[in-house]
Amino acid sequence: MPKQQQALFDDAIRRLEQVADHTRVDDEVLSVLKHPKATLEVSIPVRRDDGSLSIYHGYRVRHDDTRGPTKGGIRFHPDVSIDEVKALAFWMTFKCAVVGIPYGGAKGGVCVNAKELSKLELERLSRGFMRQIADFVGPDTDIPAPDMYTNAMIMGWMMDEYSRIARRHTPDVITGKPIPLGGSLGRADATGRGAYNCIKQLERIKEWEPKQITVAVQGFGNAGQAVARLLHKDGYKVVAVSDSKGGVYSSEGFDVPSMIRVKSESREVKAMYCDGSVCEAVDARNITNEELLALDVDLLIPAAMENQITESNAADIKARHIVEVANGPVTSRADGILKDNGIMVIPDILANAGGVVVSYFEWTQNRQGFYWKLEDVHSRLEEIMAREFRNVHDISSERKIDMRTAAYVHALDRLGSAIEAQGTEQYFRAGG
Ligand code: NAD
After folding, report:
1. What's the gap in Å between 109 CA and the centre of ligand 1?
2. Which CATH class is domain 192-351?
């Protein structure tokens, strides 16, 4: 197990202990939240196209279901480990509580390099994983969704496999499905849009003039592209973007829709401004991911993966604000350094919650059999994101704590009141 990931769940618990001092929740609440409710480890045999058999390992963790069925994505990645999945499930519990949707947290993953599989092998793996976890998930118990290297089509296969096992059509077992299979309009860009809704609240509070605000986005994938596109449309200057191969920088700012177009033709971000037609008018240069993180910008948006800003590079960060679109891009030790340097961090459990909010909309639409217009999805998402951003910001201002601590306090208040409503030691002792 990679050392970095082993530390991830410990890091999540360390953060919980740090915020506990700012809340009045019962100690029992913290004890409950430090332990995932259930973990499942499975092996998935997959027949390869050449006739050979490969065995993959996968996990599903349900962290806490006090506030409702658990919810969380499934990722396909070679570095997936039980500790990483536990940490991601923990974050989902807090994320759902921050935005006040009636879910607990879960996560799943398969240890695989999906890029090395053919499409048929990927379908066999997806269906095989669902067969192994079918007794653990369900529309009223645990509802998966896409995450890194899984997509709508994979969700569709998994929904179909579950429906075959259940012998009834069960679209509400999984979200992030293709629209014709019961997916919601507006789910594809919901995470980026939710982060954009948060940034618009920040804009209001800080009285920003968008044209004067520079933005760097690490990770130009689904979520990173969506937030960059929406900010660009409002006049923000997106001066740098990157992917796993490297990045590009232009002090003038990029035309984001052109970049998305080129990237979708499966070209690397790095190559875009060197030999593509979009480069001609722009004075751009290649940069590394390390350089991107250290750029002197107003807004840094890590939208790639966890553990990107650590105690070893936190002191190099010059951005005034960080909006965490990825899960866990800033470690708890880096947090202190950023705080000392006056950098405001909008935490992942708030900033990237748009995806799970629209997943919740998808699940409610599936259960009702009644589908919403895109405008309704956008306006209901904005309403939730703006309301909860303001709630967290108010807690942060009133108690003079940073936004991350405030978001955890807000979530812990909701989780604590749900867990305490089932009775604590204090209650049972008083009852005799
Ligand atoms: P994605 O696979 O579509 O995009 C990820 C991008 O990051 C890719 O462009 C990849 O090349 C790039 N990348 C990978 N490693 C990198 C590195 N070291 N430096 C720079 N770029 C790198 O994934 P996504 O769905 O956009 O998710 C991105 C992050 O957002 C993940 O942490 C994910 O957990 C989180 N997130 C996504 C959603 C969602 O709905 N998509 C919801 C909540 C959180």
Report:
1. 15
2. alpha beta
Cα 189 from Cα 195, distance rounded (Å): 10
The answer to whether the pTM exceeds 0.90 is yes
Q: How far is the CA of 228 from the centre of ligand 1 (A)?
A: 13
For residue 105, how far is the Cα from the chain centroid?
12
**CA gap 20, 129 in Å, rounded:** 37
- Chain centroid, CA 261 distance in Å: 24
Active site residue 107: yes
Strand partners, 41: 59
Common-topology check for domains 35-172 and 192-351: yes
- The pLDDT, as a whole number, for residue 273 is 56
Specify the ligand 1 atom closest to the Cα of 190.
Answer: 40
Instruction: Round to whole Å and give the CA distance between 291 and 313.
Output: 11
Instruction: Return the ligand 1 atom nearest residue 352 CA.
Output: 43
CB neighbour class for 156 (10 Å; exposed up to 12, middle 13-18, buried from 19): buried
Q: Report helix, strand or coil for 281.
A: coil
Q: What are phi and psi of 216, to 5 degrees?
A: -125, 135
Q: Report the distance separating Cα 258 and Cα 281, nearest Å.
A: 12
**Which residues have C-beta within 8 Å of that of residue 146, sequence separation ≥ 6?**
73, 74, 152, 154, 155, 176
First to last CA, the chain: 48
Which is catalytic among the residues 107, 200, 237, 270?
107
139-174 pLDDT per residue, tens? 999 999 999 899 999 999 999 999 999 999 999 999
> 77: which DSSP letter?
-
Residue 191 CA, closest ligand 1 atom number: 40
CATH architecture of 35-172: 3-Layer(aba) Sandwich (3.40)
Q: How far is CA 408 from the centre of its chain?
A: 16
**68 within 8 A of 103, measured Cβ to Cβ:** yes
Of 97-101, 200-204, 242-246, 316-320, minimum mean pLDDT range: 242-246
Rg from Cα positions in the chain:
21
Measured from the Cβ of residue 119, the count of other Cβ atoms closer than 10 Å reads 9
- Whether the predicted pLDDT of 241 surpasses 90: yes
For the chain, the domains span 35-172, 192-351
**In whole angstroms, what is the distance from residue 242 CA to residue 221 CA?**
9
